[in-house]
Specification:
Layout lengths: L1 E7 L2 E7 L5 H18 L4 E6 L7 H15 L2 E7 L4 H13 L4 E3 L2 H9 L2
Parallel strand pairs: 2-3, 3-4, 4-5
Antiparallel strand pairs: 1-2
Amino acid sequence: MSVEWIDHKGKKILYIKYAGLTSEEKLDQIDKAVEILSSTKSNSNLTLTDIRETFIDQEFMDKSKIRGKVSKEFTKKAAILGVDGLRKIMLKTVNAFSGNPREPFNTMEEAKEWLIKD
């Protein structure tokens, strides 16, 4: 699994990568990311979720919506990679339900630059 803090120009970003994980591992990773965010006890965290090369099923969507409500309290800005086609509709659903909007980007660099911009 891959949930780790990365540094971009002196700012910490929680990078959550789902590629190569089984369905069960993806669900566990959602919980792990929320646990890490909540342990900071801060509402100024930056997150970058990477769903490129990842199969998204209904169970993943459902858990993302529910756990997104929790992570909202600990997130200042959230970016996401790998949103195209039908995934745009899925993202709108998750964003609306969780109240924790993730902004889609095409490249890692664009996402990181947007996250650190005040």
